[in-house]
Amino acid sequence: MPQALRPPSLDPVAAARWQGLPVQDAQSPWLHEEVAKRMHERLDFIKLQPEQWVHWGPLRGGLAAQRALEQRYPKAKVWLAGEPPTHAQATRRALQTPWWQAQHWRGPKRHEGLPPEHTVQMLWANMHLHASAEPQALLQTWHRTLAVDGFLMFSCFGPDTLRDLRHVYAQAGWPEPAHEFTDMHDWGDMLVEAGFAEPVMDMERITLTYASADTLLAELRGLGRNLHVQRFQGLRSRQWRARLSEALLTLARPEEGGRLSLGFEIVYGHALKPQPRLKMAAKTEIGLDQMRLMLQSVGGIKGKV
């Protein structure tokens, strides 16, 4: 993958540590749930009704979103994937209904882990891609999971996220508060490189306000960690925390009643998995899986290969 398309300044060790960090409670970040609602609205423009679909990282991506998608596709089989064991266990507990309720027996057919390759019609990944150290490899995994004509729906942070906070840190002479986030046009390039077709990218800005520095910092801790390769090393002192709280007061906006304000750029992406196309050469070798996909997509052939 071209270096320019890798997450700028992201520390892969810190990213792996964040992905596996144990959860205190089974609750998804509020902002992630809000983004999931807005992404959910985009499904109104898609006619395909998935018979099988994958939710990548539901605990951080949105447990309420999981329930909403199950209501939208009540007969579909769903796979919960992309989580470490501790997260998967918390997700299972949060979504489980008591055995004496009818929903326990009539509810959706949930499975954990990845389904067989080339089988699902939708892969849903809310607010995960920006924290991946190898996004191209992740996109390729998603591509392999989808069936031909299946589609990917994802969202992530864009480069304008935390711009005001970056200014506060720069003014104080501190290292960056977060790694740089990838532009939506680069995500479009990576989708095509991974084999997707017809990528549609758009973005919006969401502004959140906070009554105090403590509530602002608590929100950020729920959203992630500082994964910048040149971030502060080690723990900060109480004196530094006091300086940070004071510096954050510069984020107060009169138009917001004096509340502290932070902006987030949200990138949305949608792409299809097209029918495989062979690159013709003097000698062309076709794998069994690829041949099966090609035959199944031509004339509705139902036989076995």
Please describe what this structure looks like.
With 305 residues, the chain is α/β, with parallel strands linked by helices. The chain has a single domain (3-274), classed as Vaccinia Virus protein VP39 (Rossmann fold). Helices cover 37% and strands 20% of the residues. It has twelve helices and seven strands. It has helices at 12-19, 30-41, 58-61, 63-72, 85-95, 102-106, 135-145, 163-172, 184-193, 213-223, 238-248, 288-296, and strands at residues 52-56, 77-81, 109-112, 120-126, 146-157, 197-210, 260-272. Strands 3-2-1-4-5-7-6 form a seven-stranded mixed beta sheet, sandwiched between helices. The radius of gyration is 21 Å and the shape is globular. It starts with 11 loop residues before the first helix and ends in a 9-residue tail after the last helix. The model is unreliable at 297-305 (pLDDT under 50).
Summarize the structure.
With 305 residues, the protein is an alpha/beta fold. Helix content is 37%, strand content 20%.
Number of strands: 7
Strands of the biggest beta sheet: in what spatial order?
3-2-1-4-5-7-6
- What structural category arises from helix and sheet content? alpha/beta
Q: Unreliable stretches, pLDDT < 50, 5 or more residues?
A: 297-305
Structural shape: globular
β-sheet strand percentage: 15-25%
